[in-house]
Amino acid sequence: MNERIAAVEIVDLSFSYPDGHPALRQVHLTVAPGERVALVGPNGAGKSTLLLQLNGILRGQGHVRIHGLEVAEENIRRIRALVGLVFQDPDDQLFSPTVYEDVAFGPIYMGLPLPEIQERVQRSLAQVGMADYAQRTPHHLSVGEKKRVALATVLSMDATVLALDEPSAGLDPRARGRLIRLLKTLPQTLLVSSHDLHLVEALCPRMVIMQDGRIVADGDSARMLHDEELLARHCLSEDSCE
Amino acid sequence: MHANFIDPFHARDSLLHHVDPRVKLVLAVAFILTTALLPPAAWPGYILVFALILAVAIASALGPFFAIKRAFLVLPFVLAALPVLFTTPGEPWLHVPLGRWALTITAAGLARFASIALKSWLSMQAGILLAASTPFPQLLMAMRALRVPRLLVGVFGLMWRYLFVLADEALRLMRAREARSAALAGAGGSSVLWRAKVTGYMAGSLFLRGYERSERIYDAMLARGYDGEVRTLPLPPMARSDKAALLVGLAIVGSILALEIWVG
Ligand SMILES: Nc1ncnc2c1ncn2[C@@H]1O[C@H](COP(=O)(O)OP(=O)(O)O)[C@@H](O)[C@H]1O
Ligand SMILES: [Mg+2]
Predict the structure, then answer these.
(1) How do residues A62-77 score in pLDDT, each as one tens digit?
(2) Which residue from A minimizes the CA distance to B218?
(3) Cα angle vertex A118, ends B142, B155, to 5°?
(4) Does the model's pTM come out above 0.90?
(5) How far is the CA of A165 from the centre of ligand 2 (A)?
(6) Chain B closest CA to A181's CA: distance in Å?
(7) Are B233 and A117 within 8 A, CB to CB?
(8) Which of A7, A11, A70, B129 has its CA 20 to 30 A from that of B149?
(9) Considering the domain boundaries, does residue A74 fall inside one?
(10) Closest chain A residue to the Cα of B216, Cα to Cα
(11) Is B154 a domain residue?
């Protein structure tokens, strides 16, 4: 990839749900290849909606480009191979009867030959430490294990941009620590929506605050996370916005 | 809180558990067909078939009574065959007075009813042993191998996967209801109306959650390239021993049928 082309380029993006509720308003965001960016904001700020725009599950007015490629109907197959979207609830992400079939799903739909599919499934499961669970059914896994398998389902597609929706939600501290360590090993461009400011601090050097469908702050996480006044203003500390 | 108890699969390290799921599915279907085709009152045939299923049960390491007991579940459905007791022509065996009328049970009718009950019970055992010795994902693979339409197999797979998720949600809702009704119990117990309302709310809430979840699942499938066509991994090759088992099984089931037809 050309280093000068942004991994994600969002230009003047607005979006309303069919019920007329505006969920994104004039969003601008550029993410460089390999960058790790946290999307932070109160519930309903539009974080999940924004992530769903990255591979065209939802489409609004404005432009979204992934490595220079416009998110549009004619590019949709390539876009979906480039952007790995991991949903918040792993029970939504893992819809196959076995872990193996789930991780193979993306590669199958990319039309890859069988040996390559098998190689990718093994590699991705090993990467998230779930190689021994291939024949298990997702229902029998713990939340932490499900989250890791969910990540493997997009790693197997060799996505270059990973969009993770609240990856640490519902995890106990140990599982969360393990997930953060795992995410830190990934070379991919990362866009992570989260309420978990510890995860943001440990994982993402850059942080973007959203509120009411707008990006209201964008900068260095180490600095912003210690700016109590900023966090309170955007409803990110415990007794703000009562 | 996990609804694991819905899963009929029982993990064992038995001969039956190691047989290829395709072989088991074909043989179970052949067994059920053969049993269904046995003529009424072909008692020696039923004994043969029972001996066969008992042998399979023993090979399953689930205990000989595992399937026998569970197969009695079929009995309520057998009641649908009750009219044959009276409609089969033959020697009267018993009169049942019913007000001004009397129903006559014939000996032939009784034999026929007993045959239907026995055959259903035997067929049920085959289904139970199949499901208990084969993980459901492997059964799906076997269905694909037998050319069951892919979309249907895909729907079965999703149903199975989300049955547990939905059952977990239902369990959670029920627990929440219990937590609240305990408080009401001190105040004279919960009224039927209140219970009905809560149950209605629960059903509605489950339906809504299911609906919303289905939308998210569909999005998750689209995000990974789903295009409306159901595609799956190719079927694994079948071992020689499994092919041999298939032939032997078919031969046994086929000869029982041939024998019965020839004798009968
Ligand atoms: N399917 C939907 N239909 C209508 N409105 C929605 C839908 N999903 C989300 N919204 C609304 O859009 C806004 C942004 O939601 P979301 O992107 O889920 O926020 P976040 O992920 O930041 O919590 C919220 O006000 C929410 O109520
Ligand atoms: Mg969200």
Answers:
(1) 999 999 999 999 999 9
(2) A92
(3) 40
(4) no
(5) 7
(6) 25
(7) yes
(8) B129
(9) yes
(10) A92
(11) yes
Same-domain pairing of B113 and B13 = yes
Q: Is residue A130 included in any domain, yes or no?
A: yes
Its domain, for residue A123, covers 8-233
pLDDT in tens, A137-195: 999 899 999 999 999 999 999 999 999 999 999 899 999 999 999 999 999 999 999 98
pLDDT at B182: 60
Mutate to test the pocket of ligand 1, among A13, A15, A17, A191 (most ligand atoms within 8 A of CB): A17
Structural domain span for residue B254: 3-135+240-263
Residue A187 lies in a domain: yes
CA A84 to ligand 1 center in whole angstroms: 20
pLDDT at A241: 75
- Count Cβ–Cβ pairs < 8 Å, chain A vs chain B: 83
Mean pLDDT, consecutive 10-residue stretches, chain B (264 aa), reads 78 93 96 92 91 95 92 88 84 80 84 92 96 95 94 93 90 81 56 81 89 94 92 91 94 89 74
Distance B207 CA to ligand 1 centre (A): 20
Number of domains in chain B: 2
State in Å: Cα A37 to ligand 2 middle: 16
Does the residue A88 lie in any domain? yes
Q: Which residue of A has its CA nearest to B233?
A: A108
**CB of A60 closer than 6 angstroms to any ligand 1 atom:** no
Q: What is the ipTM of this complex?
A: 0.91
CB contact under 8 A, B224 and A97: no
Contact A95/B at CB under 8 A: yes
